[in-house]
Automatic annotation (TrEMBL):
One of its GO terms (molecular function) is glucuronosyltransferase activity. Its main location: membrane. It is found in: Membrane. The keyword Hydrolase does not apply. It is a single-pass type II membrane protein. The chain crosses the membrane at residues 20-43. Keywords: Glycoprotein, Glycosyltransferase, Membrane, Transferase, Transmembrane, Transmembrane helix. This is Core-2/I-branching beta-1,6-N-acetylglucosaminyltransferase family protein.
Length: 435
C-alpha cells in the first residue's frame, strides 16, 4: 500500500501511450533515406563534382592501414588545395630587422618586389615603437603596395635573440600568417635587412618556372665533432622568451645526451622552402616537427638546425632538399662568428657565384648602388620587370603602371642562375643531400 501511495499516477502513461512511435519511425525513415542518398551521390557538389567544404577533411580509410585516420586526408587536401605546378610561380618573403633597420628593410623590399609575390616585414621588439610605426606608415603610404595588397607588417613585434629559438618562433609565426593570408605562393624565402638581391625577380621567377614546386633549397650537413659538444649538449635559456629587453643566451651548468629517435643536422639559417614542406612543419601530422621544435628550444644556434633536422628525418621530404642557401657569403679564414661585410672589392666574386642573394652588407654601402645600377637596373623604387609598363621618359617610374605580372623579362641574372641550378640539380650533387 505504501508503494502505491507514493507512486506517480502518470508514470504508467510512459509505457501506455504510443505517441512516441510515430516520430521515431519518421526519424528512422529520414535517416535511412539520407544514408542511402549519400551513398548514391545525391549530395555531390553542383560545381562539377567538387567536394563540399565540409568534405575537405574526411575520415577515409588509409591505403596502408586497417584503421581509419584523418592525417592522410588532411595531408592530401593541403597538398592540392588551390595550387598547381602549371603557370608562373609565386614567392613569399620574410624580411626581418632590428633597431635602426627600417630604412634598410624598405630598400631590400623595393629591390625584391614583384606584384606576384607576398611579403611580410618584422621589426623586432628592440626597435622603438616610433620606428615600427614609421615602417608601417611607409608601407601603407606606398601606392603600389596599397593597390596590390601583398605587403604586410607584423603587428606583433617579437624579441629575437641571436642564436636563440625565438628566431625560429618568429619565422614560424610569419609562415603561419602567410599560409593563412594567401594560398597563392610556392616558396618561402627569409632575408634580413643586411641581405640584398643580385638579380631581378623576373630572373628568379623565370628560372623557377620550370622547376618542381617541391624542391627545398637549404644548406645542410649532419652535425658532428665539436659542434655536437658546443651546440647540442649544453642546456641554454633564451631570455627573449620571458624578458622585454634583448640579452645574450643564458647558459646552465647541466649537459644533456644526444637524441636517439632522430639525427641532428645543421647548416645555413637562410633558406628557400617549399609550401608543401612548410605546411608539414606547421601542421605536423606525424608530430615530428613539434618534437624537434621542443628539442631545439634548448639548442645553440637553433635557426641553423631546426628546418634541416626536420627535413632530413622525414622520408617524404628528405629527397627534396638541395644543399645550398642561394646566398653569396664571405667568411674569414678560419671563420669567425659573423661573416665578412661585403664591399666593392667583393662585387666580381658575388656575380661569379651565380647566387641570387648576398649578405651581409653594411648600411648604405656604395656596393649596393653598384648592384642597383649594373645587376638590377634599378633607377626608381623597384627593380624593373616586364610588369612595369609605364613611360620612363623624364625620369618617371615605369613601375607606376602595372601590366601582366605572369610575364617575365629575364636578363643576364637568369642565365647565371640557370648555371647554378644545373650544378645543384646534377646527379652527383644530389647524392650529398641529407648525408
Amino acid at each position: 500500500m505504501s508503494m502505491r501511495k507514493y507512486m506517480n499516477p502518470h508514470s504508467a502513461r510512459v509505457f501506455g501511450d504510443r505517441v512516441w512511435v510515430i516520430p521515431f519511425v519518421a526519424s528512422l525513415i529520414i535517416f535511412i533515406t539520407l544514408f542511402f542518398s549519400g551513398i548514391s551521390g545525391l549530395f555531390t557538389s553542383p560545381h562539377g563534382g567538387e567536394q563540399l567544404p565540409f568534405d575537405i577533411i574526411s575520415f577515409s580509410k588509409s591505403d596502408d592501414s586497417n584503421e581509419y585516420f584523418v592525417e592522410s586526408d588532411l595531408k592530401r587536401s593541403l597538398e592540392t588545395n588551390g595550387r598547381s605546378e602549371i603557370g608562373a610561380p609565386r614567392l613569399a618573403y620574410l624580411i626581418s630587422g632590428t633597431k635602426g633597420d627600417s630604412h634598410r628593410m624598405m630598400r631590400t623590399l623595393s629591390a625584391v618586389y614583384h606584384p606576384r609575390n607576398q611579403y611580410i616585414l618584422h621589426l623586432d621588439l628592440e626597435a622603438p615603437p616610433r620606428e615600427r610605426l614609421e615602417l608601417a606608415s611607409s608601407v601603407k603610404a606606398d601606392p603600389t603596395f596599397s593597390e596590390v595588397e601583398n605587403v604586410r607588417v607584423m603587428a606583433q613585434s617579437n624579441l629575437v635573440t641571436y642564436k636563440g629559438p625565438t628566431m625560429i618562433a618568429c619565422t614560424l609565426q610569419a609562415i603561419s600568417i602567410l599560409l593563412k593570408e594567401s594560398s597563392e605562393w610556392d616558396w618561402f624565402i627569409n632575408l634580413s635587412a643586411s641581405d640584398y638581391p643580385l638579380m631581378t625577380q623576373d630572373d628568379l621567377l623565370h628560372a623557377f618556372s620550370n622547376l618542381s614546386r617541391n624542391l627545398n633549397f637549404i644548406e645542410l650537413m649532419q652535425i658532428t665533432g665539436w659542434k655536437l659538444n658546443q651546440r647540442a649538449k649544453p642546456i641554454i635559456i633564451d631570455p627573449g622568451l620571458y624578458l622585454s629587453k634583448k640579452s645574450d643566451l643564458a647558459w646552465t651548468t647541466q649537459r644533456r645526451s644526444l637524441p636517439t629517435s632522430f639525427k641532428l643536422f645543421t647548416g645555413s639559417a637562410w633558406v628557400m622552402l617549399s609550401r608543401s614542406f612548410l605546411e608539414y612543419c606547421i601542421w605536423g601530422w606525424d608530430n615530428l616537427p613539434r618534437t624537434i621544435l621542443m628539442y631545439y628550444t634548448n639548442f645553440v644556434s637553433s635557426p641553423e638546425g631546426y628546418f634541416h633536422t626536420v627535413i632530413c628525418n622525414n622520408e617524404e621530404f628528405r629527397h627534396t632538399a638541395v644543399s645550398h642557401d642561394l646566398h653569396y657569403i664571405a667568411w674569414d679564414s678560419p671563420p669567425k662568428q659573423h661573416p665578412i661585410s661585403l664591399s666593392m672589392k667583393d662585387f666580381d666574386k658575388m656575380v661569379k657565384s651565380n647566387a641570387p642573394f648576398a649578405r651581409k652588407f653594411a648600411r648604405d654601402d656604395p656596393v649596393l648602388d653598384k648592384i642597383d645600377k649594373e645587376l638590377l637596373g634599378r633607377k626608381s623604387r623597384f627593380a624593373p620587370g616586364a610588369w612595369c609598363i609605364g613611360n620612363p621618359e623624364g625620369g618617371a617610374d615605369p613601375c607606376s603602371v602595372r601590366g601582366n605580372d605572369s610575364v617575365f623579362r629575364p636578363g643576364p641574372g637568369a642565365v647565371r642562375f640557370q648555371e647554378l641550378l644545373q650544378t645543384l640539380l646534377s646527379e652527383d650533387f644530389q647524392k650529398k643531400q641529407c648525408t
